[in-house]
Every structure is written in structure tokens, then in C-alpha cells.
Amino acid sequence: MRHARALLLGSAAALATATVLRLPGAWASGNALNHVSGAWIALAEDLAHGTFYRALSEPGLGYGGTRFFPLAFALHGALRASGADLLASGYALSLAAGALLALGVFLLVRAAGLATPAAAAFGALAFAGFATQHALASVRGDLLPVALSALGLAAVARAPARGRGAAAAAFLFALAFAAKPTALTAPAAAAAWLALRGERRLALGLALLTAAGAIAVVLVTDVLSEGRFLAILAATATGGAGSRDLLRGPIRLAEHLLIADPAAIVLGGSAGLVALVALPARLRAARAGQAEPALLGALWLLAAGAGALVVFASPGTGVNHLVELEAAAAVALGTAWAGASGAARLARALAPAAAVAGVWVAIGMAREDGRTARIREVHQVAAALPAGGRVLSEDPLVPLVAGGRPEVLDPWMLRLAAQADPALARPLIDDLRGGAFDAVVLFQDLDSPDSEPWYARGNLGTPVVEAVRSAYRLAERHGRYRIYLPVTDRARAGPLASAPPRG
What pLDDT shows up at residue 285? Predict the structure, then answer.
């Protein structure tokens, strides 16, 4: 036991050290900032300028449409309104959310009886996967809801028989929902745990309070956005998912684990195995009125896994949706750590391996941040754009860095909304065909065959891109970005014909 504890503390300390040391390079490179981060930042920037959710099409603002819930970008918008730097404020919020997540995991594992050093080690273990490591250096709303969920579960676990604990948990769960609608998995786990303890009235009360809080979040958000929020959700909430996509959910989840986040397989697989071994004894204890926090950790892992299957049925979802699964896995391992059972011995054997896998992830990301820098490409594109010109960018971050506001807030959702209502994008298409934009920034070379499936099933949509193809020509390349300029502008047409693209 002493040897296992030393191994856990050492590996977790190495993970925490590698994580802290890599963050300055990650922030400087901006490699965790993609066009989805750009949409989150654009929402914050809109709010800082007085617009809470722009409409799907809004004169003077361009095109909105996103299924993101408001808490994370509202905090960012408040910082921007106070004068904080665009990216530094976003990074600070991600770091604060990461610290809250570590605290929530620590408190939840501590409620299972672990000593402070071991509980702190599992707080670090929550960052043993790519998804959580990536989220620390990004600007988006993935860490905050999971952190609030963990804190809510800790409130339940630390005072399960007190209504005050349930009320605090319901408040935290409602806040988590305000950050991300899929954050209802943790309250489901908490209510199930209370019911298994025989505290059915408390479980029902928690469920009702959380539901009331979630409804209040939706209604208040819709009122503050002057009805735009629900209209946007109606057009974008499914992400274009159909019946076939529901069947593909497990496949897409497996693909993301294998390709983007294999360390999560180590962490989640270890936790899943421990939970499976422990579950029969935990359920027997629950029936005897002795449901301990170890069962709560296993139930959260189960709920998070089920939630991931549903989320990955929606096209466009990515590795960021594994954050909750990784945090729940750390909790499941931590709450099973103590004792002499087979599950406890298994947790003591596997948790250090998960931490080592996390160190490997952190080192690999640090190397990539030293090799490339996405934010440098963004600045190069911003500097190459016509000063004060009208720009359509597939990445909303580009016009934001250039000092403007993006014409299209979420290029993925523009495609979905325009497929349902082709008239929505008609003014944009007409403007493109008429060369009204001074520049268009895309990720794909439109002469490449790869561009057709990319835009048909991904960002912007084929009709918009066909309008770009008809009136614009590739002028420059900067890393993953392509700048297109109007062919009708004779001042630019000459250089386009004689100078090859750069990059």
C-alpha cells in the first residue's frame, strides 16, 4: 500500500509538473485555438459590444447560430468589456476552470476517505488525457461545466443526508447546465446514488431542483437574448444529426479515442475496469443502506460514458467532448483506491499508469507547440488582409485578431441553417458573387478535390463556397489558411496572375 501510494504521488506530481511547464508554450503557440474557439470568442466579443446571441442572420452583424450555452462566454465577455486582452482573458478563464475541476475532483475523492495528498493526486489525474490537456490551453466552454459538475457531486457526497447539500449541488448543476447542455449527466448520477442509498425523497428533490434550474437558465437566456436563443437552438441543436448518425455514435467515439486521445483509453479503460470489478459489491452495499462515494464515482463514469455516446452521434463533435469522461474516470479510480478489495488493488495498479500516459501526452503537446504556432499563422493572415476591408473568414478568430468582428460566427452552423432555409444565405451568396468582400479566408484550396466534401459536410456549405469560387482567386497561403481576393479588383488581379501563393 505504501509503495502504491508513493508511485501514485510521484506519477501525479510528474503529470502536474509537465502540465504546468507546457502551458506557457501552449498559450504562446495558440495551437489549441481552432475555428470553434473562434466562435466562442466571437460570442464573447459580441456580448462585450452589447449583443447577447446574434440572430441567424442579422443586418450589420452578419450571421449567428450556435448551440453553445452562455456561462463561459458571458464570463469572457465581461472581462473583455472591462478592457482585458482578447486571448489572455480567455486563457485565464480556461486555467481557472481547470483549477476548479482539480478542486472538484479532490473534494469528491476526499469524501471517499482518501488522505489529502492522494486526493490531490487524483485531481491531477483528471488531466491525464488529451482532451483535458487541450482544454487548458484553449478558449472554449468545455472545462467549466465539468468543474461545476464535480463540485456539485462533491456537495452531495460530503453531506448526502442534508437538504442543504442537495440544494447547493442543484445550484452547481444548474450552473454547469448554463455552461453546457450535456452537463445533466452528473446530476443523473447523483440522483441515482441518493436513490440507491434509500434517500429517494432527497433524490427526487435534487432532480426537481436541478430541472427547475435548467429551465430557468433556458428561459432567462431566451429573454435576455430577446428570443434569439431558442430560435437558434431550434435550428442548430442537433448539429444535423439523423437516425444513421445515432447508430454511428459509438463508432465516432471509438475513432476519437483511438486517433485523437489514446491516453483517454488508458485512463477511462482503467477506471471502467475498476468500476466493473467493484460494481457488484457496491450495489450489494447500497441495498444494505451503505452506498459510499465509490459508487457515486462509478455512476458518474457510467453516466458520462452514456452522455458521450449521445454527443458523438451529432456530426461536428470533437475530442473536446471527452473532458467529462476523463474527469469522471479520475474520480472513479480515486474513490475506489482505498481498502483491501480487488477493485482497490486494481485501482492502485492502474492509476499510476494513467498518470504516466498523461505525462506522455503533455510532453508530446509541448513538442508540437515548440514546432508550430497557429497563432502566428493567424497574425500573418490578419496582417495580409486589406486594412479596414470587409472579410469573410471560415475561422472567426482571424477577423477578431485583425481588430474586427466576424461576418460568420459559426461556419458549421451557417451550413446547417442554410440547408434548412436556403434563403438565409442568399444575401451572403449574392455579396460574394458581386465581389463585395475584400477578402475571403478559407482552410481549403478550392482547386483541391478535398475541398468539395469538406464544405459539403462541414463549414459554410457548397452554395457559399461555389460563390467564392466564381468570383475570387487564391492569393496567399499562410500555414492552414488560404486568402482569396476578388478577381474583379484589377489592382489585385495582376499580382495574382504573376506571383505564386506564399506559405
Answer: 75
**For residue 415, what pLDDT is reported?**
92
Domain stop point among 351, 371, 391: 371
Instruction: Look at residue 29 and tell me if it is in a domain.
Output: no
Backbone angles phi, psi at 199, to 5 degrees: -100, 65
Instruction: Print the domain residue range for 293.
Output: 67-371
| pLDDT over threshold 60, residue 2 | yes
Beta-ladder partners of 63: 408
Number of domains in the chain: 2
**336 φ/ψ angles, rounded to the nearest 5 degrees:** -95, 0
pLDDT in tens, 29-52: 999 999 999 999 999 999 999 999
Kindly tell me if the per-residue pLDDT of 243 is higher than 70. no
Does the pLDDT of residue 498 top 60, yes or no?
no
Q: Is the pLDDT of residue 499 over 50?
A: no
Dihedral sign from CA coordinates of 403, 404, 410, 416: negative
Is position 61 within any domain?
A: no
Last residue of a domain, one of 337, 371, 405: 371
Kindly report the number of other CB atoms within 10 A of residue 21's CB atom: 12
For 335-386, strand residue ranges (E) read: none
Whether 42 maps to a domain, the answer reads: no
For residues 350 and 429, state if they share a domain.
Answer: no
Do both 396 and 314 map to the same domain? no
Domain presence at residue 232? yes
How confident is the model at residue 473, as a pLDDT? 95
- Residue 435 and residue 346 in one domain: no
How far is 109 from 328, CA to CA, in rounded Å? 11
- Separation CA 233–CA 221 (nearest Å): 12
Handedness of CA 179, 320, 373, 497 (dihedral sign): negative
Query: If you write DSSP's letter for every residue of 379-415 in order, what string do you get?
Result: HHHHHHSPTT--EEESSTHHHHHTTS--SBS-HHHHH
What's the CA gap between 269 and 287, in Å, rounded?
27
The vertex-318 CA angle with 317 and 320, nearest 5°, equals 115
Q: 166-198: per-residue pLDDT in tens? A: 889 999 999 999 999 999 999 999 999 999 888
Tell me what the pLDDT averaged over the chain comes to: 90
Q: Which of 225, 194, 224 lies closest to 208, judged by CA?
A: 194
